[in-house]
Amino acid sequence: MQNVVTALRVLEEVSARQPVGVGELARELGLPKSTVQRSLRTLHDAGWIRPAGGEVTRWQVTSKLLQVARRTELGLRDAAVPVMEELRQQTGETVHLMVPEGEAVVLIERLETDKPLRIVLPLGIRLPLHASANGKAVLAHLDRPLDELPAYTGTTIVDGEALRAELAAVRARGYADNRGEWRSDIAAVASAILGADGSPVASISISTPASRMPDDLRAAYGALVTRAARTLTGSLG
Questions:
Q1: How far is residue 113's CA from residue 126's CA, in Å, rounded to a whole number?
Q2: Residue 187 has pLDDT above 70, yes or no
Q3: What global pTM score does this model have?
Q4: I need a labelling partner for 151 at 20 to 30 A (CA). Which of 49, 53, 132, 223 fits?
Q5: Residue 25: how many CB atoms within 10 A of its CB?
Q6: What architecture does CATH give domain 2-61?
Q7: Distance (Å) of CA 22 to CA 6, 15, 42, 52, 57
Q8: Digit-coded pLDDT (tens) for 63-101
Q9: What residue ranges do the domains of the chain occupy?
């Protein structure tokens, strides 16, 4: 069992740092090079990784990992779209579904508002974990260093202690909000969708132009998006 866990840890690190060599992997994982090398051979034999640029000293993931991720993503979409549609009907606003990827969340589904004033984000766009509602909803359930955070607007939280306090508040109330922290013209509330192990697999949000989310609506929308995320957490778990 331990060998399987080690191989999965190595696979995660290869995915995050590719192309990467055995020495760097061993340092990051705190494992002997020989242990990492055995896991790399196993993953290569199983088709999960391949030499980067033909160099057997550096590795990257194969399309097999992407295929598995795509099937998972499609299952998530199938479950999420009816819940997203209900949110859109309740609020009349745009609803987003995003998944964590490295230091960002990625938009994989969007149901748009019918209102003429709208902000359209393209599918596939990446938003920073610390400066977006979807990102903070996810980040509240992750153990990540909170230093050297870039500012995107004047309201971006870049102080680590301040962000830790914000994430504690997110966990307490069930949803994160964005007060123009990534783009000053966007407001949003979001809640994390959790897997069986309690880790965030996605986040769902209500997004509006900043002018359409006063504080009273922010709290009401936060309650709605929290309930939606809990519904999806239950259905996926």
A1: 21
A2: yes
A3: 0.72
A4: 223
A5: 22
A6: Orthogonal Bundle (1.10)
A7: 14, 13, 14, 12, 7
A8: 766 566 655 566 788 889 999 999 999 999 999 999 988
A9: 2-61, 68-236
